[in-house]
Amino acid sequence: MLARARGASRAAGRRRVGSLSRVSVPPPVPPPPGQPHERDVPTPPRGTPRPGAPGHPQPAGRPVAGPPPPAGSPVPGPPPPAGSPVPGPPPPAGVPVPLPPPPGVTASGPGVPGHGAPPPQTPRPTPEEDAPASPGSPPPAGAADQAPVPEGAGQILRDGLDVLRDAGRLLARHWAPLVALAALAVIGRHLVLNLAVLTAPVNNVLGLLVFSLVPLVWLIAVVGMLLVLRRPDRGSTDDDGARRRVRRTTGLVLASLGSVMVPFLLVYEYTGSLSDDRGRYFLTSLQTQMGNAFDENLELDPTFDATADIPDPTSLVVLGTIAAALLVRFVGGRILRSRDPEDDGGGWTWLRLVIGYSEVVWMVLGAVAIVEVTRNAQGWWRERSAAVELAAWWEGVVADLPHLGAFADAAFAVAAAAVGGAIVGVGVPLAWLTIGTIVYGVRAERVVDDPTALARGRLGRLTARVTDRVGAERIRRAWASMLHPESRFGGLTGGLGLVLAAGWLPALLFCAAFLLAQQADYVIWWLAGVALPTAVRTDWIALYPAIAAVAVVVSQVLSIALLASAADALLRRFGARSALRLPERMPSAAPTAAEAPAPHYASTSNAQ
Fold this sequence. Notes:
Blueprint (H helix, E strand, L loop, with lengths): L1 H20 L105 H4 L22 H47 L4 H8 L1 H16 L10 H17 L1 H14 L2 H19 L24 H22 L11 H34 L2 H16 L1 H38 L11 H9 L1 H10 L1 H9 L9 H12 L2 H15 L1 H12 L5 H36 L36
Helix pairs in contact: 3-4, 3-5, 3-8, 3-17, 3-19, 6-10, 7-10, 7-12, 7-16, 9-10, 11-12, 12-16, 12-17, 12-19, 13-14, 13-16, 15-16, 17-19, 18-19
Keywords: Membrane, Transmembrane, Transmembrane helix
């Protein structure tokens, strides 16, 4: 019996060993390149825990020691290579066995991920897309997808500090040309005004045409100061390339003259400069005529007419001059629209000069005529019987209800102060910011594809209603025509769109800083009072022109530096590259390839 039991045990062992031998065990996986083979690993000293023991990490790719798995169960091991069949139980009878695809063919079919479409591949940039662009050039094609997202107040405040810092750097490096241009503007304004007075006795129309150049002197100085602070475009270094760049820059400035002139005249009139020029022109002309009104016997000439050389702004002569300037602008614009699109504009500079001058003439004389018409309308209304009866009725109401009259007077004063404060504190700075955005000739229509959608997200329902009423397609067309020679006021529309789409908080921060810069003239007068404590009235009369000129120059230089920095920061928010004439800020540590900044068009501010 004992011998029979031993024989049965040996037979069972042989059957178990045979079943184990039929289990498919995968071949050993070779080690990765650079790692030693298992047979090359030195034997650990005696007493070291063997692999798989408690407290010893299990090497990767080694099977876990333990009892053999039962028959038919999968054997643990490394995953099979990609494309190889996964081991498993055989399929039932009658079911076809799927064959692996040949090399180089992607598996497809129902239930296979990515069925019906090749795997996505990331396209490589072309050499044109990878090449760095010059400052002020259009941003890359994907810049429209980089539209600004709403930031927090802290980030916007940091950006505002960066704007002030860049303005200070601009002043530190370029104060000399800025002061020179501002001083030339003060002198040129005085000389052109005197020239208009001298030409008025010859011909009234000629005097008006010369008088129209007085605001243009200031505008040219502002544009020149902004261009001084702007980095020049990089291109070919030969003489032909330099001449082409000069012609292109001149063409862009002349083309955008009409768009820049609109906000500039609004600022020029509201600050009182246009009315001051008109008053000085008429007063100086009258003084010149009075000097010629007496004969050698100091008797007044009976044929003397004090208003002979001073035309009425609403007369037919002035209105005819405005109409002729508009006609020249219209015909010149039609000629420019019919030119060859491939022409760089060098041969059309003279025509653009004529168009720009006609634009200035009709705008300046039109503004003078509008101011005069407004004054005449106010005087005409005061003389009407309806106005007299309305004033008498209100006086009776105030006499019967004095508290109502006091409340109405206070409400009117508060409303007038609020409107005036809004114009001075918000309207005028935003008009200057629009001027800087237009002059910094970045192709803004390529920065944002849909300005109306961006403005909707920034300003909410009010902008959406205005956009729907005006028409999104019209706004897009005006946006696309920004800084184009054929455009009338497309640059103005595009610049205002950029300012509004940037958000109210950055705009209000700029308004506050701009108002502070505009108060520099008060500081100059205070310093003059401190430096001249014993000056009498006659001394102040003699020193007034010089001190006033210094105050204007200082205020203008500070404002233009801040305007250039703010306009550049606004354009950078929409994907444009910095164009300020400032040195690059070297990073403290070498950045990686993904973090490396652009070579010459990187922003000059710390926070982007």
